[in-house]
Amino acid sequence: xxxxxxxxxxxxxxSISTVSLVLNQKGYVAPQTRxxxxxxxxxxxxxxxxxxxxxxxxxTGNFGFIIWEGHFSEVELFYSQIFLGMEYAARHNxxxxxxTTVREEFDPKTDLPRFLRYRDVDGVALAGRVPGAxxxxxxxxxxxxxxxxxxxxxxxxxxxxxxxxxxAFQAVETLIKxxxxxxxxxxxxxxxxxxxxxxxxYTEALDKHGLKxxxxxxxxxxxxxxxxxxxxxxxxxxxxENHPEIDAVFCCNDTTALGVISAVQRLKxxxxxxxxxxxxxxxxxxEFSSPKLSTIRVPKLEIGKExxxxxxxxxxxxxxxxxxxxIAVETILRxxx
Amino acid sequence: xxxxxxxxxxxxxxSISTVSLVLNQKGYVAPQTRxxxxxxxxxxxxxxxxxxxxxxxxxTGNFGFIIWEGHFSEVELFYSQIFLGMEYAARHNxxxxxxTTVREEFDPKTDLPRFLRYRDVDGVALAGRVPGAxxxxxxxxxxxxxxxxxxxxxxxxxxxxxxxxxxAFQAVETLIKxxxxxxxxxxxxxxxxxxxxxxxxYTEALDKHGLKxxxxxxxxxxxxxxxxxxxxxxxxxxxxENHPEIDAVFCCNDTTALGVISAVQRLKxxxxxxxxxxxxxxxxxxEFSSPKLSTIRVPKLEIGKExxxxxxxxxxxxxxxxxxxxIAVETILRxxx
DNA sequence: CTGAAAGCGCTTACAG
DNA sequence: CTGAAAGCGCTTACAG
Lengths: 337, 337
Prior knowledge:
Two copies of one chain form a homodimer.
Chain A: H1 5-12, H2 16-23, H3 31-44, H4 50-57, E1 62-68, H5 69-72, H6 79-92, E2 96-102, H7 108-111, H8 114-117, E3 123-127, H9 132-140, E4 145-148, E5 159-162, H10 164-177, E6 183-187, H11 193-208, E7 220-222, H12 229-242, E8 248-251, H13 254-266, E9 276-278, E10 295-297, H14 300-316, E11 324-327, E12 330-332
Parallel strand pairs in A: 1-2, 1-3, 3-4, 4-5, 5-11, 6-7, 6-8, 8-9
Antiparallel strand pairs in A: 10-12
The structure holds a DNA duplex.
């Protein structure tokens, strides 16, 4: 059997209270007592039992990580890297991150993740677009939560945001500076605020550089569904066939951009000579496509870490005002521009 | 504050023992008492507190899921789907699956996942190739564990295996039946037993159909590193340039096959007219490549579920003899053959 | 600076 | 069929 705090106390000739104090670095313990206890802990390789500690402190030591099923199973990995970032951060304070998925048609009565049903988390990170009913539930039940790469218009929730606007702006400006005059946009679901912001960055960069004519609706292709390669292909086909003068495409993300690449290749246009292509996210595949994709790097691990930190601060200080943290992005130039 | 078992007992006019009995469906409780208690539970929306229950039962209610960092961050998703399968299964008995990664250079002294350090799991699933030192540790410490898509030669551990041999055999036989006479093999790391088995299926199918001449070393390309598109590209280039008669390539997995596709296309050969290509795994991308990839489907979710079930049985019955469960695969014909 | 005691919210023999 | 009591392994005021 694994040793308990009692074994340590006996072996060190002190009470369990004192052992607990050194374990938690609280109160004052005489230096020699402390070091004696510490060496016994070492010797017996003692670790406090999580569930006992949790029961006593009335904390769970867990954070939930909830993601829409479709996002988790996506072909390209993005949110799983964000999870990994949280997991890395959690290692340092021995928190556990419980990852689970929810379906699109979410009903709190029947679909509540079990760690919420059993109030088995101290807080929750919501990755990407999640059901509104879930957010409402957390809000009503006063479960601390942070939205990651998502937001609810008009609501002031804790969130970690990607600097979509500036990223898009930079990307388009880069295209303009290399002489592109006819820059199109291909995108997916406007349900997702990120896509909206990226579109805004696109249009404002055009405005700034006097390329207003690019802003005609003819230069944009969007479908109100989850982004995919297919949208990229269809969009590029449509745009380039109707407007052969287009010499660059800014895509709402890399997945879409990969679709655009295949379409452009099928149309026998050269990349980047005839058409430059810019993505967003820097998913791993972006580096392996041919040509390799220029894109805006979103630091996924860092986002996860930041989500963890915010959540942790939140439970230390429950009355903290909701805040938004913006994560900076970085331009990555490869072969497609 | 959330209600406790005491609140339920008071409200129902019984002792907490009785409430506990109905909660756990144990012993005999008079039907009317039971239903009274149940309705109070309903009414107060009571949920037993995990950590209290865990402390009392001396179980953790957690399983660990350990995967090599590189596998988790792989471009193509495979193991994360296996995780999802476990998570699905775990929902039904309120187990939690704690996902974490380990580095290649693993040292139990310093790199032990925290849930092992704190003995905070009842068992562990190891996905794919994991450090030998980790397996040894679990074995020595008598932590119940199951290997998923991995095995240790000469050791009789619990494992969930994919039927690699038969899958490969079927794939190659399919190629032969459609008239292919010169079938090459492209593969990666032989460290992984799965690759070995797939290779064996390949050679034995050739033997059975009297295509022994295919078995010359000239028809195989392998590198002892993690599989990747790059290996596929290099392999296909090498093989097809030296042996223009090759009319089919069986790849050790889809990732490799995607590389083979680009190489074949670069060589201006038609798929499947000139060269048929067969993959293995059925990763999501296989369906989106062009041409779409024929492959052997590995049921990832089912593997995860089976891993969960085996682990669960293991902790119910700790003296169970180690066993191997083989998961059947399925041939998926698409455009590349 | 340290210990005795109560308490966290459950489960589980054991009586009756 | 039900309840009183002990116990799981910790933490945390409170005395001293």
